């Protein structure tokens, strides 16, 4: 094999693991962009050291070892990402104010296609989807970094304790102890996931169709009928979050009134239905990116509207254009 062909073969073998490694690093770091940076660093380190890879473990295990070390190094700063609901109580509408916090405060959304590799086993696919839901990834952030790695490797990726011990250069007993502590911590956090099916069942599709119609028509009566009475609305980078359909619709008609006339384009994020929200350009030139909305559904109602507003970052990540013209809207 020529040097060029050998290089292409190594590149192909490493790239074949990119999606699953990104999913792993996202669960560890809570940031789509940091996860991609971590994976790129992992693959560069692996490429540079490939001649030293002796095959004593699988290529996959070797890459996970490198990725784990990269993530642990990134987590040494001690920052853990959160949702607005993890930091404060709900704000009554009368006291609502938009106070932004730094970007690295927030748990970030991520497109399913970047973190969930295709698998044939429906049960395995379901576990993977549940493990990237916003609530679960937020709960992971409460764990010390090594416990986080142990729990993801053991409970999400189904590695054996001996494999995890080898990856972390520790004992099986230490891995089992870390897993017990991690489970106890997660039991004390709200990591409950919405009950959205995959693919969406007919009732859920109709609910989302009605949501799009209500939001695009800015029909608060119709929207209220779709929201659970304890539904929440979050808006990172603002720490404000609202609970209850009255406060949510009241906010949309007051501080959020500029969203009238928006258009929603369907996507998927964190194993959940999502939408790219475009709102009217103040200059009157079509529609401009505003938010990626991640939607929670439970018991036939919308229970969460998580609106990520840092649009210069999100829309390219999700593959959406930077503007819709009036004809498209």
UniProtKB/TrEMBL annotation:
Cited PANTHER family: ECF RNA POLYMERASE SIGMA FACTOR SIGJ (PTHR30173:SF36), SIGMA 19 FACTOR (PTHR30173)
Keyword Cytoplasm annotated: no
SnoaL-like domain segment(s): 209-303
RNA polymerase sigma factor 70 region 4 type domain: residues covered: 134-186
Keyword Transcription attached: yes
Record note on quaternary structure: Interacts transiently with the RNA polymerase catalytic core formed by RpoA, RpoB, RpoC and RpoZ (2 alpha, 1 beta, 1 beta' and 1 omega subunit) to form the RNA polymerase holoenzyme that can initiate transcription.
Keywords from the UniProt entry: Sigma factor, Transcription, Transcription regulation
Record-stated family: Belongs to the sigma-70 factor family. ECF subfamily.
A Pfam family matched in the record: Sigma70_r4_2
Protein name, as recorded: RNA polymerase sigma-70 factor (ECF subfamily)
InterPro entries (alphabetical): ECF_Sigma-70_Domain, NTF2-like_dom_sf, RNA_pol_sigma-70_dom, RNA_pol_sigma-G_actinobac, RNA_pol_sigma70_r2, RNA_pol_sigma70_r4_t2, RNA_pol_sigma_r2, RNA_pol_sigma_r3/r4-like
Residue ranges occupied by any RNA polymerase sigma-70 region domain in the UniProt entry: 17-78
